[in-house]
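Duplicate of #3305? Posting structure anyway:
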């Protein structure tokens, strides 16, 4: 489990077992190392505070994480449980580790998706236009309220080259299948720009890409927590580059 809260605050993190017995109780700068569990409580590189609790497969069960406020401004925190498919399969338990009750199904992005200029991509099925966003596609926003994911692309039941095979394809699903679609579209945009003698910055790429999306779905106007600004339209993005005038700066909002 990973927990983050503001660097302006200071919490104490306690773990209790099913019998309500306290196993550890760590303040900022401390760690705990005991059979079945390891925990740290540190200041992150971004200035906020982070607590991590790692449990071994033998530690499966019901646990309580209790947060004590030592220095509280507003008490806001975010917490996630990493998925544990492999360990659970070995234990013949097929449901993921989870919080007993889900307070908020937003903020489920992996930390690798939360870069300032990187483009986070959601996944949907391109084979059925009426399908909702893929159920495995994480929801934003980021902890600090930024709009991610920013765009979505086909990532469900995608046939792609099978590594180490000469002729076979493999059908896979995941945002790892959707992200290469956006990478390919950006490569085509850069190729078109180079052909015209235009250099595109990351801000210009983002502007062109997000202004040429399609919606419905998503049905709501503006940014969506899973679709982002909308679904990618490769040809429209490339045509937007073609429409640029050489040496004319692209206005960035």
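Output from current build:
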């Amino acid at each position: 489990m990973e927990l983050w809260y503001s660097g302006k605050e200071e919490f104490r993190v306690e773990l209790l077992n099913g019998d309500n017995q306290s196993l550890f109780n760590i303040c900022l700068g401390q760690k705990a190392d005991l059979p079945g569990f390891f925990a740290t409580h540190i200041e992150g590189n971004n200035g906020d505070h982070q607590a991590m609790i790692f449990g071994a497969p033998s530690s499966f069960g019901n646990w309580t994480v209790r947060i004590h406020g030592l220095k509280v401004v507003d008490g806001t925190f975010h917490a996630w449980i990493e998925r544990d498919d492999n360990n659970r399969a070995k234990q013949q338990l097929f449901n993921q580790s989870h919080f007993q009750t889900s307070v908020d199904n937003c903020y489920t992005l992996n930390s690798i998706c939360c870069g300032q200029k990187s483009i986070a991509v959601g996944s949907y099925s391109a084979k059925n236009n009426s399908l909702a966003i893929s159920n495995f596609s994480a929801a934003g926003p980021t902890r600090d309220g930024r709009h991610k994911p920013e765009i979505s692309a086909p990532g469900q039941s995608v046939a792609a080259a099978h590594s180490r095979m000469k002729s076979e394809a493999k059908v896979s699903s995941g945002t790892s299948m959707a992200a290469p679609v956006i990478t390919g579209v950006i490569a085509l945009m850069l190729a078109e720009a180079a052909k015209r003698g235009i250099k595109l910055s990351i801000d210009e790429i983002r502007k062109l890409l997000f202004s040429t999306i399609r919606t419905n779905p998503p049905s709501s106007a503006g940014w969506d927590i899973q679709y982002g600004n909308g679904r990618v339209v490769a040809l429209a993005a490339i045509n937007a580059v073609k429409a640029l005038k050489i040496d004319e700066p692209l206005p960035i909002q």
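Confirmed duplicate; merging threads. The chain has a mean pLDDT of 88. The chain is about 20% helix and 25% strand.
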